[in-house]
Design brief:
The complex is a heterodimer. By secondary structure, chain A is of the alpha/beta class. Chain A is built from 17 helices and 14 strands. Chain A has 3 domains: 2-78, no CATH class; 126-354, Type I PLP-dependent aspartate aminotransferase-like (Major domain) (Aspartate Aminotransferase, domain 2, 3-Layer(aba) Sandwich), CATH 3.40.640.10; 363-487, Aspartate Aminotransferase, domain 1, CATH 3.90.1150.10. Chain A has helices at 40-46, 66-77, 100-106, 109-112, 124-141, 153-170, 187-194, 212-218, 241-250, 283-286, 342-378, 399-405, 409-417, 446-465, 467-471, 484-489, 495-502, and strands at residues 2-5, 10-13, 145-147, 177-181, 198-202, 223-229, 254-258, 278-280, 301-303, 315-319, 322-326, 394-397, 425-426, 435-438. In chain A, the strands form 4 sheets. A 7-stranded mixed beta sheet of chain A has the order 3-9-8-7-6-4-5, with helices on both faces. In chain A, strands 12-14-13 form a 3-stranded antiparallel beta sheet, with helices on one face. The longest helix of chain A has 37 residues, at 342-378. Chain A is globular. The mean pLDDT of chain A is 95. By secondary structure, chain B is α/β, with parallel strands linked by helices. Chain B folds into 2 domains: 51-78 and 346-445, Aspartate Aminotransferase, domain 1 (Alpha-Beta Complex); 80-342, Aspartate Aminotransferase, domain 2. Chain B contains 13 helices and 15 strands. In chain B, the strands form 4 sheets. Chain B has a 7-stranded mixed beta sheet with strand order 2-8-7-6-5-3-4, with helices on both faces. In chain B, strands 11-12-15-14 form a 4-stranded antiparallel beta sheet. Classes of the chains: A alpha/beta, B alpha/beta. The interface between A and B is large, with 213 and 198 residues.
């Protein structure tokens, strides 16, 4: 449970390694009776005489009863903010409600029993559900083909750039550069680097979007294409997208879409219709699958017809109402083991069918309504770096508060927690100094949005009248401003390192 | 729609505050020509009752028993694990960027890192990667980065699925894979094959071995690792089932530089083998070269013990095009499931369960000792896989058919994967296969 420290009258959560009960165990195992004798020598021989017993080693593994384990993981869970208990307007992450029927489906015993190497004839139902989701996503996005194979958004980016690279390679073109806007997610340039592509940065204009003129200038014959998030990370729609894609296409390049912000377009715009050649989906954002503290998600990818054959293996085909797997010759190959992140696909299927085609328009419009309502309520209290209309998220900055009393975006985000609200994304996008990026999503109602606005209003007033309370925040969380610099100086990444005397003092 | 909370009146009042007439005006920044005119062709909404009965009808249990492993080794996961995972605090939180709002997730990752490092006998571990195949790729990329070399040696007895993924990345990330054959009579690595390459090729950054290998054999780890080090290259171990290290020495203790593996077998949901749980452990000296997320322990302003994401300057959101990897998330919910399962097993249970797996396999093999119908191919040294060699393909197919009629999937036919193993069945036995089921197999094999 807890450690009590008399010196400063503090209690802290135990780690699971501090349950001092030698050989305690949270499971009971009964040994079956064997009809033939199995000797110690059999065991030794099987293990090539390298028998080891982890329970008699120095390894740090927990030694706790079932009840202690339950209590431990319940206690520490309560130190998390989460969608179920807090408004969670984390920009670019689309923290919408995670419906529980999705969980019920994903936890059905039937699915759990499916081994991926069973014969395809025994996997028809799961394959049919994957097939459905592919088709729903193709319809939603306007692409010819969709693969669910990538495990996450960043994995999709790898997949997408690989497809572009391979296609150009087969055309005997050596394109070694990629255009990436300054407002892009960090995964974009990081992925390009993995593929040995040189990143050419392009800046958004004074209105907060890309100008086709700039793209024209930088779109040289050695450029593979461009990675665009639309709406971009300011929540602003890339107005010149059609011209930009025309320019890129004319020079033989491809337009890759980062679909992190797809939640603002469903039913209103289909990226495949407006010039994108590839686009990734984040099923854990747009399609309500749980974020789980950081994954697993699923990063499906959609492509135009001429890139279909390059999609990762395996692809699902259907013939006479039966499903098959096929491996296209031009495919970039396998990008992970087995099938797509199936339990995530199941949840997305359930979400899409629960919503039905007609409700997407409503959810999209409410996501955009919420963000714009916040924007109009806060625009006089906080600096709004771009006046251009925005969609599902709004980016404000700490400029005013910094000038007034040297209060930063970090301080503001810490103070927000005192009001039981999860902080927005801060210091991103990089083209806005001191950015505070708010994405409310459609599932927060007016009451919740009003509360969020009133919290930010109180904080704006405090910045004027009582900045100290912001600077010392948060005041009622379990821990307060952990020392990140100390953590880097002498990293303690395991309980062993803590025990070895790396203990922070 | 029950997920949405706005009333019509709410919407009207919000529009008034913004100062616009209708919802459509919110979208005026999107040029008209780019907007979708039709409705999405997606079926109408299904209510919860309908959805539930749809799935209930479609997912009647067929009670199939499975002797398939080959990269997915399903183990017993206590009910406690799913019960805990269903808490919203775990399920519906996100990346713990804000430490004060995420101490639960951060502490659990710290504990996960500890558990992984200790099972693998390594100094440190990260917060996880997608699955074993992608963890292996990240390990190769890391070792090539730190050695400034361009080539890696991979023996042909690793999981063909891992091999395929490595080849995709080698083409796209531009590094070389040198494949070497394994010893045909043992199924294990032939160290001479490694040495031959290491002697002449000076561009080798690392070599890979799988433990237990794809055929389930236990390699001579020490010999492989020492050979790598003799030629100043790094040794990467890839492990499809961490449970084996309850009962046999882990790679890290024997000197392996990176140990990666698949943790999904100890998670509650393994349907279709995915999402996986890529485990990644290494030596302390590579702390700053690691891919993926790391959590460290520190103190807060009141000197209270706390946890933070750390060494983020390796990562994409800070370092952008100079990051050690593009990975953004970890497979956190699976990592948590793995941690809770291992916490329940405990040190003692981890050994006992490993031994239980081994005993069942010894029992299976010993029972087949005098069989006229099958031979045990490859391997005196094993854990929970057995490769059966039939007299001919027909006999094997007949056996598969008989088992299938009893609702048993008896193993994996290796014919499509290894041309020389065309009458061979890879049979996996874990604690989830009862003695009764194993006896049924034995009966048809002797």
């Amino acid at each position: 449970m807890y450690n009590y420290h008399k010196s400063n009258n503090q209690i802290e959560n135990k780690t699971i390694f501090e349950y001092n009960s030698k050989n305690n165990c949270g499971i009971d195992i009964s040994t079956p009776e064997y009809k033939i004798e199995i000797s110690n020598n059999d065991i030794k021989e099987a293990l090539n005489h390298s028998k080891y017993d982890i329970s008699n080693s120095n390894a740090f593994l927990p030694e706790a009863s079932e009840f202690q384990v339950i209590r431990h993981f319940t206690i520490i869970s309560r130190n998390n903010f989460c969608i179920d208990t807090n408004i969670y307007p984390l920009g670019s992450c689309t923290m919408k409600y995670n419906p529980r029927i999705n969980e019920w489906v994903a936890n059905l015993k039937y699915f759990d029993m499916l081994h991926p190497l069973m014969e395809v004839k025994d996997l028809q139902f799961p394959l049919s559900l994957m097939w459905d989701v592919q088709n729903y996503l193709a319809e939603i996005s306007g692409f010819h083909s969709v693969s669910l194979q990538p495990a996450a958004g960043a994995h999709s980016e790898f997949t997408g750039l690989s497809i572009m690279k391979k296609k150009c390679f087969l055309r005997n073109e050596n394109r070694k550069k990629i255009l990436v806007p300054d407002s892009a997610h960090g995964t974009n340039p990081a992925t390009a680097n993995m593929l040995n592509l040189e990143v050419v940065n392009i800046k958004s204009n004074e209105h907060g979007y890309l100008s086709s003129k700039d793209v024209l200038e930088k779109m040289t014959p050695d450029v593979l294409g461009i990675m665009i998030t639309n709406p971009n990370t300011l929540g602003i729609f890339e107005k010149e997208i059609k011209d930009i894609s025309d320019i890129v296409h004319k020079k033989g390049g491809y337009v890759y879409g980062d679909g992190a912000n797809l939640n603002s377009l469903l039913s209103y715009v289909r990226p495949g219709d407006i010039g994108f050649d590839l686009l990734h989906f984040n099923l854990h954002k747009t399609f309500s699958t749980p974020h789980g503290g950081g994954g697993p998600g699923c990063g499906a990818i959609g492509v135009i017809k001429s890139l279909e054959d390059f999609l990762p293996k395996p692809t699902i085909k259907t013939y006479k109402k039966k499903f098959y797997l096929s491996n296209k010759k031009k495919s970039i190959g396998f990008i992970k083991s087995f099938y797509p992140n199936f339990s995530i696909v199941l949840r997305a299927w359930t979400y899409i069918r629960s919503m039905g085609g007609k409700n997407f328009k409503k959810s999209t419009s409410l996501a955009v309504l919420n963000a714009n309502y916040i924007r109009s309520k806060l625009k006089d209290l906080y600096h709004l770096p771009y006046q251009t209309d925005s969609l599902h998220e709004v980016v404000i900055s700490d400029k005013k508060q910094k000038a007034q009393s040297n209060i930063t975006a970090l301080d503001i985000s810490k103070r927000i927690m005192d009001f039981k609200v999860h902080p927005p994304t801060i210091y991103f996008p990089l083209n806005v100094p001191g950015a505070i990026m708010i994405e409310p999503t459609e599932t927060e109602g007016k009451d919740e949005i009003d509360y969020l606005c009133s919290v930010l209003t109180i904080i704006a007033n405090e910045a004027k009248n009582n900045p100290e309370i912001i600077r010392t925040a948060p005041h009622n969380t379990d821990v307060i401003r952990p020392d990140e610099i100390e953590a880097v100086k002498k990293p303690i990444l395991t309980w062993n390192q803590y025990q070895e005397g790396h203990a922070p003092r | 729609m029950r997920y949405l909370s706005h009333t019509e009146e709410d919407i009207q009042r919000m529009l008034e505050t913004i100062g616009i007439k209708d919802i459509d005006s919110l979208f005026k920044s999107i040029p008209k020509a780019l907007r979708l005119q039709e409705e999405l062709k997606i079926p109408d909404a299904m209510d919860e009752l309908t959805l539930k009965s749809f799935f209930e009808n479609k997912t009647m249990l067929s009670n199939k028993t499975c002797f398939l492993g080959a990269g997915l080794y399903k183990h017993f996961v206590p009910v406690v694990v799913t019960q805990l995972l269903s808490r919203g605090e775990w399920l519906t939180a996100y990346t713990p960027y804000q430490a004060e709002a995420s101490q639960g997730t951060l502490q659990s990752i710290f504990e996960f890192q500890t558990v992984v490092a200790n099972i693998y006998g390594s100094d440190i571990a990260n917060a996880s990667i997608y699955d074993a195949s992608t963890a292996l790729v990240e390990a190769i990329l890391m070792t090539l980065r730190v050695t400034r070399k361009k080539s890696v040696i991979i023996p042909k007895n690793i999981n063909p699925g891992y091999r395929d993924v490595c080849f995709t990345y080698s083409e796209m990330c531009e590094f070389n894979i040198i494949e070497v054959p394994y010893n045909d009579s043992t199924g294990c690595i032939d160290i001479d094959n490694f040495e031959q390459v290491l002697k002449i090729n000076k561009d080798i950054g690392s070599l890979v071995y799988q433990f237990p290998n794809f055929f389930g054999c236990l390699e001579n780890q020490k010999e492989v690792i020492d050979t790598a080090h003799k030629y100043k290259t790094l040794a990467i171990a890839v492990n499809p089932d961490p449970l084996v290290f309850g009962i046999t020495e882990p790679p890290g203790l024997l000197g392996a530089d990176v140990v990666v593996g698949e943790g999904i077998g100890l998670c509650p949901f393994t349907g279709m083998g995915s999402p996986g749980l890529g485990l990644f452990a290494t030596k302390k000296k590579f702390t700053r070269s690691l891919p993926g997320r790391l959590v460290g322990m520190t103190r807060d302003i009141n000197r209270k013990r706390s946890f933070v994401l750390t060494l983020a300057t390796r990562e994409q959101h800070i370092r952008r095009d100079r990051a050690t990897s593009n990975i953004c998330s970890n497979n956190n919910l699976n990592a948590l499931a793995f941690l809770i399962t291992v916490s329940l097993y405990g040190k003692k249970g981890f050994f006992d369960m490993a031994q239980d797996n081994l005993l069942r396999n010894i029992y299976f093999r010993k029972s087949l000792k005098n069989s006229q119908r099958v031979k045990i191919k490859y391997g005196k040294h094993f854990f929970n896989e057995t490769l059966l060699e039939f007299n001919n393909i027909r006999a094997m197919n007949k056996f598969i058919k008989v088992m299938q009629d009893n609702n048993i999937v008896p193993g994996l036919d290796l014919n499509p994967l290894f041309s020389k193993l065309n009458k061979h069945l890879l049979v996996c036995i874990t604690e989830l296969n009862t003695i009764g089921e194993i006896d049924l197999m034995i009966k048809e094999l002797i």
